[in-house]
Amino acid sequence: MRITVILRRVLDPAGIVAHRRLRRLFINREEYILQPADRCALEVALRIKDAGDAEVVVVSGQPEPSDDTLRRGLAMGADRAIYLCGESFDDADDAVVTSVLKTVIGQLGGADLVLAGATTLDTGQGQLGIRLAEALGWPQIVGVRSVEAKNGRLRAVCQDEEQFVLVESDLPAVVTVCPEAVKPRYADGVRLINVYRGQGEMAESLETWDVGDMMSADELVPLLESRGRDFPPERTLGERVEGTPDEVAQTIADALRQRLRG
Amino acid sequence: MDFTFSPEHEALRRMIREFAENEVAPIAAEIDREGRVPFEVLHQMAEMGLLGVCFPQEYGGMGAGEAGYCILMEELGRICTSTATNVGAHIGIGAMTIYLDGNEEQKRKYLTPLARGEKFAAFLLTESDAGSDAAAIRTRAVRDGDHWVINGTKTFNTNGSFADIATVMAVTDPTLGARGGITAFIVETDTPGFEVGRHEDKMGIRGSSTAELVFEDMRVPHENVLGKVGEGFVAFMKSLDMGRLTLGAAGLGGAQAALDWSVQWARTREQFGVPLAQKQSVQWMIADMATEIEALRSLVYRVAWMVDTGQPFTQVAAMCKLYGSEVASRAIDRALQIHGGLGYSRDYPIERAFRDARIAEIFEGTNEIQRIVIASRIFREHGVRISP
Questions:
Q1: Is A32 among the domain residues?
Q2: What pLDDT is recorded for position A239?
Q3: Beta carbon pairs, A and B, within 8 Å
Q4: DSSP string of B305-353?
Q5: Does any domain span residue A260?
Q6: pTM for the structure as a whole
Q7: Per mean pLDDT, which range of B58-62, B129-133, B357-361 is the poorest?
Q8: Shortest Cα distance, chain A CAs vs residue B16, angstroms
Q9: B122-230 in CATH: which number?
Q10: Top-level CATH class of B234-380?
Q11: ipTM for this model
């Protein structure tokens, strides 16, 4: 079974201070972590690999100046990594990344399962996996908690409002994984050292592909133009509930019920 | 000159920090309270390859060198000195002796499972009458055909109660002193005659095990002699040099934690209408802590680089241990002062850090011994021999 996992990175929130009054973001330490949901997607892939026979390929799912993201994926246990780069890729938006990833999967000779994070820590978007499924014309299961792949069929548990739903699908398929789905493993230290030194079994594991060689210039023109960034509106304060404990509990229960219905 | 960490060491630090914060921090107070060795954490570290961080990959290690080992000890020292002590005794002195002085067969047989973390190591040197004066040991090994018969008692043995493999120093020729009369042995702790005695009830590092060990007619095969007969003292001293450096690294972590707590507290705690950060008395303490920590960090990683590039390091390793333990104690003492009564309370980690830090001025050679090592090297360059 061939599994492709899309990995993206995000600035470590511990190194950032947001200053609302100055409308500025201070980056004290420019350190990146794997998107937590992407890391869970990789863990899901590695568990499928542990349980049977699978090759796990990680692909960078965003334009970025470093290949650290993929090295972390390799250190956790991925077999092969494709680092996408190229000047023309630097301004890519989700639409461009989607068409590039579709081409990459084609050049890898297809995949039985594509896994990606269901959400991103910084922007909260979960677009990439959904767009990719659409571009590939494959079934998609969004926001899963657990995945089982057997005999060409896929069984996944996802969360639908208050209940868990078991979903089945044919392969190939695209699945996006919740950041709470599984506890991802730590990297294997020996793999980590070898990945960075390019030695031992990890010597050939990281490949660099130039996006400019794979796509025409037209295909790399982003659809979105960023005009600037601002803070979202401040959260409004909640309501204070007064009364005896019973009254307070009743009011809260009523409010929750109202919200679920509404 | 280049003072930057390599990308693999940066990545290793991130991995260890995440592990220490997620897996070790939540149990640090509990293992101190209960006086229990956190095996669950040690097994996880074994799986990640951390228990062989500095040993070559051909012997089951990670191959991250002494710099990698210092990173591990610094990050563990930040979170839990007990865990750092368990790991340090295993890697830095227990397994290290076999790595430095073992022959190829001994390394394959004993170092490999230790580096993989499948087995645990201990380093057995100290006796009731041989502390700082390590050459005064009385544990006796007598040759009997293909075996040596060992009798004696070792005290204050970190990991000794649960280790699978121990390196033991014993007198093989009482007529000769430290040079020629003492031999190092590799002992499998399930050997008949190896008995675990009293456990120490300690002031700090309570999540590590310190026990007395008694050897009664313990028969060790001659092939388990480490290095040459009569050269055990030198072998053990070499391992201790290596251990001293990483104790400095653990002290660095402890001092950094104390600074981080203090800055956090001084930002938010208000007295006389302003945060403590606005008080010059506190600012000066913070500035002094940060300066000492920066100096210690430079020393520790420079010495790690000296080890990894094959330079002599006995004197500077002693400086690492001496300075690292004192910087940590001073930083934690200042952090306690900044936190006031809350720092003295068991609800805050400073109280534990304070007790834990104290041992580093004593074990693996008291700081007085470190000063002797440093001074003797200085005087030796001027043709003066000093004796301890």
A1: yes
A2: 83
A3: 49
A4: HHHHTT---HHHHHHHHHHHHHHHHHHHHHHHHHHTHHHHSTTSHHHHH
A5: no
A6: 0.92
A7: B129-133
A8: 9
A9: 2.40.110.10
A10: mainly alpha
A11: 0.90
